[in-house]
Amino acid sequence: SQQGEEDPQALSIQEGENATMNCSYKTSINNLQWYRQNSGRGLVHLILIRSNEREKHSGRLRVTLDTSKKSSSLLITASRAADTASYFCATKAPLGGSEKLVFGKGTKLTVNP
Amino acid sequence: SAVISQKPSRDICQRGTSLTIQCQVDSQVTMMFWYRQQPGQSLTLIATANQGSEATYESGFVIDKFPISRPNLTFSTLTVSNMSPEDSSIYLCSVPFSGHGYTFGSGTRLTVV
After folding, report:
1. What is the pLDDT of residue A1?
2. Chain A to chain B, count of Cβ pairs less than 8 Å apart?
3. How far is B41 from chain A (nearest CA, A)?
4. Beta carbons of A76 and A32 less than 8 angstroms apart
5. Which of A29, A71, A98, B48 is the most buried (most CB within 10 A)?
6. What's A81's DSSP letter?
7. pLDDT tens digits for B30-89?
């Protein structure tokens, strides 16, 4: 079964605006990762945040993690039309557990020029 | 990170036939994962392929339907057998890299008619 639940399911914004996507999960994790998928192609790894981290930045991306609430958010600042894609969170079990990723349902982001 | 070459990128197949999808990795990896992404949905893990041992299948997926080969540490195949229209999906392979996330193949878009 799916671990993560993203919201919103779809988000449409204007170029230059910020986009925030949220992810919730159900069980303990080692880390949480965010991926981007363009037009049903392969996934691209964006950022990984470990369970002992609360916030991480990478370029225009900012990820937060609240393990007490079992939730994470992905913020894309100053969005561009090229950011149009589907975004998925994925969780990995604690050390000693499974190596597999469990994906959320995803958020479809549209950035209008 | 590893680079994965996945083939074919897309195919249209007749029901009742089988399709074999290949993934070639440019470095040796212990684990390889196979996912299915049904239209408009998130990724669901089919199985984990380890070199030198039988693949481990997730609930709802069986070896007779999705046989997997892993002859060495850089290559794997997934076969979708006796296809029906319900098998129309994107199929993706994935490998972990250095604790920083996972690399995905570019996906195989399968349509069964």
Report:
1. 42
2. 51
3. 7
4. no
5. A29
6. G
7. 999 999 999 989 999 999 998 888 899 999 999 999 999 999 999 999 999 999 999 999
